[in-house]
Design a protein that fits this description.
Rossmann fold, Helicase, Ruva Protein, domain 3, alpha/beta, 5-stranded parallel beta sheet, 4 domains
Length: 485
């Protein structure tokens, strides 16, 4: 989203409208308030807001009709309905009609603020996913995948790009740290400026200062002419320092001064130069441990570690590994003039089961190896190179040939194969939702976003589960007593 997100409040009771406006005074949104449904529809049709707070009981138009209009016309607005106490059935109907959440009068300021923030956050996340799905290459700024782990990365990239703050990217080798740095640059206002990358671990220490700051002719043996460094070349853009923890301590001192003042001196030069660059750094080490070991300056660490981004390893990205594999297969088959179009199901299971210690870079090499040394319509198990050919499947994938009930089973939940194994639907649903909450670290609104439901739906279901479990206990006790004789 650019600028402040817009919120439209449609509330016919003027005193309540003013109260809700006060509730949202501290939230960074642009709020527009109207008293009639027709005025609200005019705004929705003319300039759709990011979020609509919609009172159901309006004097001129039924609020549900406005909600239906938004859905039928595919208007890109998130809707939160407001209903009176005792009208829960209406609220449930609104949820079925596509509302994101509902508020029952009277509600507190905190409840309204949290609902609005969650609605806007979910909308922003949906925009990122839609941008990924609609892109010609099926990628987001060079990344492939929509796993929850990567969705979190995309959100931070978008937020960080709008800032001038320094970004510190961590992650194992091969997780895409440089791709992340480029994505931040491309999304920022500096995107038309240069993106300059330096690998601090690949350049000899005695040359690193010259690579960053440049040098004057004769500054050292081999300096046959004046040379501009990365600092000058990156002026107006982004300077990416990869493997920053490999930098020599003496040079770290000069880098710290450069970051603090924006000024530097070329090697062998006394003149001070000033440039405008944005710093993005990365490392595959634990930077704090490097600080504790005396290998990395603590003051430099805190100067750089403003916006941290942790790149997830491939083993934590779920089915992203299959999407990435298919992309590489198509790309390399075209390059090599081969006929590959798909992976056998057993191969997909093995790709998902392997831990990928080398991450995306290792996966890329494996797929290229397969394509170069083999040919056919489908990649089979016999074509897999070591160590893939020794992996045993540890996951299951949805099978399109299985029955409707089995195909509907949630990933990771075993489908029943006998009548005795069939569980009540609410139990399966409970396990799926609780798993999502656990994955999101107990954050229910975030879990709801990934599940495509409203947070209030989860809270409601949890209350229902408690009553269902309470009702089930006497039944189980009776069954045990009957069978225990």
């Amino acid at each position: 989203m650019t600028g402040k997100p817009t919120v439209l409040l449609i509330e016919d009771t003027l005193s309540l409208a003013r109260l809700y406006e006060q509730y949202l005074a501290g939230v960074d949104v642009e709020l527009v308030s109207v008293e009639t449904g027709r005025d609200g529809l005019d705004i929705i049709n003319r300039d759709p807001p990011d979020l609509v707070l919609l009172d159901i009981a309006l004097p001129d138009v039924n609020g549900l009709d406005i909600l239906r209009h938004i859905n039928e016309e595919a208007i890109d607005s998130t809707v939160v309905v407001i209903t009176a106490n005792g009208s829960i059935n209406v609220a449930v109907e609104a949820m079925r009609e596509g509302a994101y959440d509902f508020l029952v009068k009277p509600f507190s300021a905190e409840r309204l603020r949290v609902t609005v923030k969650n609605g806007l956050e979910r909308r922003h996340l949906t925009e990122l996913i839609d941008r990924y799905k609609e892109s010609a290459l099926g990628t987001y700024e060079g990344f492939i995948g929509v796993s929850p782990a990567m969705q979190g990365v995309y959100k931070i990239i978008e937020a960080a790009a709008a800032s001038k703050a320094t970004v510190f990217i961590t992650g194992e080798s091969g997780t895409g740290k440089e791709v992340c740095a480029e994505a931040i640059h491309n999304q920022s206002t500096r995107s038309k400026g240069p993106f300059i990358a330096l690998n601090c671990g690949a350049i000899p220490r005695e040359l690193m200062e010259s690579e960053i700051f440049g040098h004057r002719k004769g500054a050292f043996t081999g300096a046959h002419e004046d040379r501009e460094g990365a600092a000058q070349v990156a002026h107006g853009g982004t300077l990416f320092l990869d493997e920053i923890c490999e930098m020599d301590l003496d040079l770290q001192t000069k880098l710290l001064r450069f970051i603090q003042t924006g000024t530097y001196q070329r090697v062998g030069d006394t003149a001070t130069r000033k440039v405008d660059v944005r710093f993005v750094c990365a490392t595959n080490k634990d930077a704090l441990k490097e600080v504790e070991a005396g290998n990395f300056r603590e003051d430099l660490y805190y100067r750089l570690h403003v916006i941290p981004i942790s790149m997830p390893p491939l083993r934590d990205r779920g089915d992203d590994v299959l999407e990435i594999s298919r992309r590489f297969l198509t790309e390399y088959a075209k390059e090599e003039g081969k006929h590959f179009a798909e992976f056998d199901r057993e191969v997909e299971l093995l790709l998902r089961s392997y831990d990928w210690p080398g991450n995306v870079r290792q996966l890329q090499n494996v797929i290229r190896n397969i394509v170069v040394l083999n040919d056919g319509e489908s990649v089979t198990v016999e074509m897999l190179p070591p160590p893939l050919n020794t992996v045993r499947p540890s996951v299951t994938l949805p099978d399109p040939q299985r029955s409707g009930v089995e195909a509907a089973a949630a990933p990771g939940l075993a489908a029943p194969r006998t009548k005795a194994e069939i569980r009540e639907l609410w139990e399966v649903e409970k396990e799926t939702i609780e798993n999502a909450i656990a994955i999101c670290g107990g954050n229910i609104p975030q879990a709801a976003g990934y599940l495509g439901i409203a947070p209030s739906t989860i809270y409601r279901k949890r209350m229902n589960w408690e009553s269902m479990e309470a009702a089930k206990q006497p039944q189980q006790a009776g069954n045990e007593a009957a069978g225990g004789g």
